[in-house]
């Protein structure tokens, strides 16, 4: 029952709705007491041969009235209580979704997509059920049970009522014992569902790789293993759950046996009439539903309780992004001063970055090069505030980015990541994703600058062509150029291209970089790349190795230095002359 307390904030906020719901429920239950009583009265009148046509029809009229009240009340409580459940669902979904969007990279590193999806679907459904079916079953079993017992006491006989209800406490004992087991079984079951979701999501996303490497059978075997584990855990839930009904049936059987034995004795001794006994048996019949409902109730409640705890644990996680000292959302602009002495990824002992110090005047371009896994993207991640727990300081225009709101830092940055993501919508909206009010002309200008405009015109629906999961598949190079168009659409103070030109040919790369240089005259650009021609015109180039700067200078200085950069440049020049430039040489 703890879940009702945990959801107290919600029931408090929706008090009016639930009070109306309970009122209608009470009306429906009171109307439900009429038929057994009427049947008893009619039976007695029949026995005494006093039943006239007029009395019969007036009682039937009374039954009809009770049926109408019941019909209208049911309509009322359904609207109120199910409506409440829908409101809770909306509330929790919004909370969870906003929470996901606020969280930092560490959170998403800890929780996999499938697990988060399970929280947002299965767990929320279970909690929502508490506010609908749970409340209904709880209130209805108490109201139906309570009013029926009161009717037994008033219309029949208190001694028979007390004796017949003697087995009832067994129900409470059973509910308590089984409820405890159910809670832990449900927690396990929901966690198993999360793992299953994870596996499904990963396999579906990676289906091309699985097939290419002929790993279908292995993946199916892996999947079956997880399914088998999930089923074993769910069977445990069903086993505990299925104990409720037989025990309830036993208790009901006992109640009937006591009623017939003791009630029969009371009829024989003329303490009650036969009609009253018939009414009493009908009332016991009315108690059957609330008794079974208690079993169902525990299922709903314990499932909801376990899920609510899981959702709350997720909502309780705080982003490690440092709280801003300001509330402004204005984009930061000005010179970039990057002074990071040390950074480690969460749960990793190795230093991912060490002594990365550079200054970039507004309007300058920085190149980041180095072998794979050197730390280029990590340098960018700190600037994007994916992680705040580094030693050192990064300032833009003299303002420490950790003192500013995340919005104001990110509003000034246009980022093209290594892995491009397209949303399931048309090309136009994908380009103006961060600036939906931009006109077609502005979208086209950005597309031209990133050399994707001509490709788009070749698609059947041009800018209306659907992309993403449900649309056409774009080539790697097209995706990259579309992502660049998206990033420059907001006219960012700092544009970051993280290996964003690797899939375009050298000629297109030169076109894009020349256009960007012209258009972004007073704006800063950071280019991380494997192909050194991407950074050759940068004001400063940092060669990164093992999280440290191992060479620095402009292109000419680095060539003169005759280190890794110069060697790689010569190698790439030879490769491009041999015709391999279209794929872009690797620097590993
Ligand atoms: N989230 C993470 N948790 C732990 N280690 C990470 C994480 N992301 C990256 N690393 C590690 O940090 C190091 C630097 O990675 P990073 O992605 O910055 O390299 P990079 O130079 O951008 O490589 P590439 O050129 O292949 O993109 C690598 O050893 C990588 O394994």
CATH fold label of the largest domain: ABC transporter transmembrane region fold
Q: Please give the CATH class of the largest domain.
A: Mainly Alpha
Percentage of residues in DSSP E strands: 5-15%
Give the number of DSSP strands.
10
Task: Compute the CA-based radius of gyration.
Answer: 36 Å
Contiguous helical run count: 21
Name of the CATH architecture of the largest domain: Up-down Bundle
Q: What structural category arises from helix and sheet content?
A: alpha/beta
> What's the number of structural domains?
2
Subcellular location: Cell membrane
Keywords: ATP-binding, Membrane, Nucleotide-binding, Transmembrane, Transmembrane helix
Main location: membrane
Membrane topology: Multi-pass membrane protein
Task: Give a topology summary.
Layout: H1 2-6, H2 8-13, H3 15-32, H4 34-47, H5 53-102, H6 105-110, H7 113-156, H8 158-164, H9 169-205, H10 207-212, H11 216-268, H12 274-316, E1 336-343, E2 353-360, E3 365-369, H13 376-383, E4 391-396, E5 399-400, H14 406-411, E6 413-416, H15 427-431, H16 440-449, H17 453-458, H18 476-488, E7 494-498, H19 506-519, E8 524-528, E9 540-545, E10 548-553, H20 555-561, H21 564-577
Helix pairs in contact: 3-5, 3-7, 4-5, 4-12, 5-7, 7-8, 7-9, 7-12, 8-11, 9-11, 9-12, 11-12, 16-18, 20-21
Residues 109, 345, 348, 352, 370, 372-378, 418, 499 line the site of adenosine-5'-triphosphate.
